[in-house]
Automatic annotation (TrEMBL):
Gene3D superfamilies: q2cbj1_9rhob like domain. This is Prolyl 4-hydroxylase. It comes from Agaribacter marinus. The keyword Cell membrane does not apply. Belongs to the iron/ascorbate-dependent oxidoreductase family. Residues 118-234 form the Fe2OG dioxygenase domain. GO terms for molecular function: metal ion binding; oxidoreductase activity. Keywords: Iron, Metal-binding, Oxidoreductase. PROSITE patterns: FE2OG_OXY.
Length: 235
């Protein structure tokens, strides 16, 4: 099945409910093993177009490395990004309505990209990450500019047997309460949808925002590759 058809076939009602109840949504089997391997191998291929290579330790972001793709994105990355977007935009538009921001996200990724470009956010944000023993990713938010689409997707490219540790961690900050940690199960080929910066939660006096951060715990063994899909471009 093609990538757009796979994404179209997902149960988006259940996904929206899971995201709103738990703060993240888990989507099993988005990519098959071969696709995961091909994507992970792009990391070392000299022909892959990357715009930058980040050593996380250099910026105190953690330990490990990642590479941002340049435009044009590899076909599979581009298909995943543009196929996920319209479903996520529907969810975020509900959030904007609940939070009474007056904001509406466009229906297609092309339109969002155009909005980003007008705000001088021109650089693509999809990235490949690689962690080896001892590597970790500090809790962070992927904002990259004034325009930040509220949801992002992370896809696991490595099999559980290839590494130990390296758990995806999500922390939700709750006003006047202690933060809530979540360790997310993350099998090869599965995707996780998470909020980029915050999410609406219903309180006693209406909807408010809970700040969210994500990171990865230390790898104790092996190698772990992930694909990050962020929908806004970077300045
Ligand atoms: O490697 C991971 O699971 C997290 C990746 C990440 O931080 C991202 O895609 O924004
Ligand atoms: Fe991230």
């Amino acid at each position: 099945m093609s990538i757009p058809r796979r994404i179209n076939a997902l149960d988006w009602t259940a996904t929206r409910i899971m995201l709103n109840e738990h703060g993240y949504a888990y989507l099993p089997s988005i990519l098959n093993q071969e696709e995961c391997l091909q994507l992970a191998q792009l990391y070392d291929q000299p022909t892959t177009g990357f715009r930058s290579h980040i050593n996380m330790a250099r910026y105190n972001f953690g330990r490990g490395e990642y590479k941002y793709f340049s435009y044009p994105l590899p076909n599979i990355v581009s298909q995943l990004r543009s196929s996920f977007y319209p479903y996520l935009a529907k969810i975020t538009n509900e959030w904007e309505y609940q939070l009474k921001t007056g904001r509406q996200w466009p229906e297609t990724l092309e339109q969002l990209t155009e909005t980003c470009h007008q705000a001088n956010q021109m650089r693509p944000t999809p990235l490949l990450l690689r962690y080896t023993k001892g590597d970790y990713n500090c809790l962070h938010q992927d904002l990259y500019g004034e325009i930040h689409f509220p949801l992002q997707v992370i896809i696991q490219l490595s099999a559980q047997s290839e590494y130990s540790g390296g758990e995806l961690v999500l922390v939700e900050q709750r006003p006047r309460m202690q933060s809530r940690p979540m360790v997310i199960p993350f099998e090869q080929g599965s995707a996780i949808i998470i909020p980029v910066r915050d999410r609406p939660v219903k309180g006693l006096r209406g909807w408010r925002r809970n700040q969210m951060r994500h990171g990865v715990s230390e790898l104790t063994q092996g190698t772990r590759h992930t694909l990050g899909l962020i929908f806004h471009d970077a300045n």
